[in-house]
Design brief:
168 residues, alpha+beta, 4-stranded mixed sheet, 5 helices
C-alpha cells in the first residue's frame, strides 16, 4: 500500500509542479499543503509541506485520502478576476467567429450585417432563460439574415457570365 501512495504522491507532485511552472512559479515559491484526515469526519487538517502560509500565490494541496486528489487554492479576488478574464476571452472568441462567418458570406457592408446579427442574437437571448447559456449556430444565423436581407450581401452569381451560370 505504501508504494501505491508514493506513486500517487509523485504523480500529483509532478502535476502540481507542471501547473506551477506554467503559471510562472518555481518550486521555491510554491506553497504545498497536505490535507490529512482526523478522527472527526467533519474536520481535516492542513499541513504545510513547502512554501509559506503568507504566500499570495496560489496554494496547492494534496488530499492524502484514498482518492489522492490535488487542489489549488486562490484568493477570492484572484478567482473573480480569472472568471472575468474567461468571460472576456469567451466574448472575444464569439466576436471573432461571428466576424469570420460574416466575411465568408461576402457582405456589402460588414457593419450593417454585424448590427442585424447582433440584434438577432439579442432577440434570441431574450427568449432563452437568463441562467442558461445561449447557443447560436452562426452559419444558420447568417443564412437567415442573407435570406431576409439579401441587399446586405454581394450576389456572386450576378458576376458569373450567363453562359457559365447555365452550365451549373
Amino acid at each position: 500500500m505504501e508504494k501505491k501512495d508514493e506513486k500517487y504522491d509523485i504523480e500529483l507532485a509532478e502535476k502540481i509542479n507542471a501547473l506551477s511552472k506554467s503559471l510562472g512559479f518555481t518550486r521555491d515559491n510554491q506553497t504545498l499543503l497536505e490535507i490529512k484526515k482526523t478522527d472527526d469526519k467533519n474536520i481535516k487538517e492542513l499541513h504545510l509541506k513547502n512554501g509559506s502560509w503568507e504566500s499570495s500565490e496560489p496554494w496547492f494541496a494534496i488530499d492524502t485520502d484514498d482518492e489522492q486528489k490535488a487542489y489549488a487554492f486562490i484568493p477570492a479576488d484572484a478567482f473573480s478576476q480569472m472568471i472575468e478574464a474567461m468571460k472576456t476571452a469567451q466574448q472575444e472568441n464569439f466576436n471573432l467567429k461571428l466576424e469570420k462567418t460574416i466575411w465568408q458570406n461576402v457582405p456589402i457592408d460588414f457593419e450593417d450585417v454585424w448590427v442585424v446579427a447582433m440584434e438577432d442574437i439579442r432577440t434570441h437571448a431574450r427568449r432563452e432563460s437568463p441562467e442558461k447559456p445561449v447557443s447560436i449556430d452562426l452559419d444558420k444565423l447568417l443564412k437567415k439574415i442573407k435570406k431576409e436581407h439579401p441587399n446586405l450581401f454581394i450576389n456572386l452569381k450576378e458576376f458569373i457570365p450567363p453562359q457559365l451560370n447555365n452550365q451549373q
